[in-house]
Amino acid sequence: MDQLARIWWLILIRGIVAIIFGILALIWPAITLLVLVIFFGAYALVNGIFSIVAGIRHGSGSRAWLIISGVLGVLAGIVAFVWPGITSLALLYVVAFWAIFSGVSEIVAGIQMRKVIENEWMLIIGGVLSVIFGILLLIWPGAGLVTLVWLVGIFAIIYGITMVVLSFRVKKLPATA
């Protein structure tokens, strides 16, 4: 605990940076989305290159899969840089279909659990809300992209506030002998 108390200021800085990022994401959602797509592109490109190198150096049967995975990563990175709009739209569709499929599975699970637990309706309502969210993303993808960035911004602000509060609590920890 003593070591944690000594670095309380690092937690504080982490929280402040998260708050600033969150505010900037809310103020400039289009720029934030572009930056997220560029970061994804850079990650995919670098990860792809490392996978290709690992595949070339690796002599076993998984060599081909590493190389294929690497090539796909490099291609995904290039697509993100060349067509950032398509990349952000693809990300939106992944989130939308995930929300729909997970919502349907929650509805089914809630119906099946009716005999086992009480208040299964909460799981069913959660599933219905998830399906509605996914469908709305598909109907209005432009608004959905902005909404996703806003959610990231709001999350960053809330997370940052919790880190700031935590930093001051950690600062007050008693030193151990």
Automatic annotation (TrEMBL):
Transmembrane regions listed in the UniProt entry: 7-27, 33-53, 65-83, 89-109, 121-142, 148-168
GO cellular component, one term: plasma membrane
Name used for this protein in its record: HdeD family acid-resistance protein
Keyword Cytoplasm: no
Domain of life of the native organism: Bacteria
Name of one Pfam family that matches: DUF308
Keywords recorded for this protein, A-Z: Membrane, Transmembrane, Transmembrane helix
